[in-house]
Automatic annotation (TrEMBL):
<dbReference type="GO" id="GO:0016020">
    <property type="term" value="C:membrane"/>
</dbReference>
<keyword id="KW-0396">Initiation factor</keyword>
<comment type="function">
    <text>IF-3 binds to the 30S ribosomal subunit and shifts the equilibrium between 70S ribosomes and their 50S and 30S subunits in favor of the free subunits, thus enhancing the availability of 30S subunits on which protein synthesis initiation begins.</text>
</comment>
<protein>
    <recommendedName>
        <fullName>Translation initiation factor IF-3</fullName>
    </recommendedName>
</protein>
<dbReference type="GO" id="GO:0032790">
    <property type="term" value="P:ribosome disassembly"/>
</dbReference>
<feature type="domain" description="Translation initiation factor 3 C-terminal">
    <location>
        <begin position="85"/>
        <end position="170"/>
    </location>
</feature>
<dbReference type="Pfam" id="PF05198">
    <property type="entry name" value="IF3_N"/>
</dbReference>
<comment type="similarity">
    <text>Belongs to the IF-3 family.</text>
</comment>
<dbReference type="InterPro" id="IPR019814">
    <property type="entry name" value="Translation_initiation_fac_3_N"/>
</dbReference>
<dbReference type="InterPro" id="IPR019815">
    <property type="entry name" value="Translation_initiation_fac_3_C"/>
</dbReference>
<dbReference type="Pfam" id="PF00707">
    <property type="entry name" value="IF3_C"/>
</dbReference>
<dbReference type="InterPro" id="IPR019813">
    <property type="entry name" value="Translation_initiation_fac3_CS"/>
</dbReference>
<dbReference type="GO" id="GO:0043022">
    <property type="term" value="F:ribosome binding"/>
</dbReference>
<dbReference type="InterPro" id="IPR036787">
    <property type="entry name" value="T_IF-3_N_sf"/>
</dbReference>
<dbReference type="GO" id="GO:0005829">
    <property type="term" value="C:cytosol"/>
</dbReference>
<dbReference type="InterPro" id="IPR001288">
    <property type="entry name" value="Translation_initiation_fac_3"/>
</dbReference>
<feature type="domain" description="Translation initiation factor 3 N-terminal">
    <location>
        <begin position="9"/>
        <end position="78"/>
    </location>
</feature>
Amino acid sequence: MISREQHQVNEAIRARDVRLIGADGDQLGIKPLREALKLAAEANLDLVNVAPQAKPPVCKIIDYGKYRYEQSKREKEARKNQKTTQIKEIRLSPSIEEHDVNTKLKNVRKFLSNGDKVKLAIRFRGREITHQELGRRILDRIAKEVNDCSDVERQPRLEGRQMIMVLSPKQ
């Protein structure tokens, strides 16, 4: 779709011949630009190039101010209806207790049900880095517990002193 700044209106149109669409939406055929401008002026409306890439370009006789207003309303409505997914991060440690894991699982389920992605990060402090299998075991358990409502987007992977896994909600 062409943004407002790219629309050519009236004298800004540089084509010799244009495919003309009337104010009521009917096709008027291929006309010279001068004649199309004259028809638009007689109707007290603007000649707008709606498809400049076409051969010949498609021009429409419309009220350009009203057209821009309606287009901005459509864009605003489209922005309002789109869902933005956030990434929620949950931090764990390799020495986490059973009850704490259950609490984190409850939060993971809540975030996934809201349509957000969840980034699980296990931070290894000091000598804990030598026992990476503990962290992987915790992440695998969480992934298995919530596999009914999530997909593993990124498998557990060590990045520096953190092991990170990303879960996304099932479609």
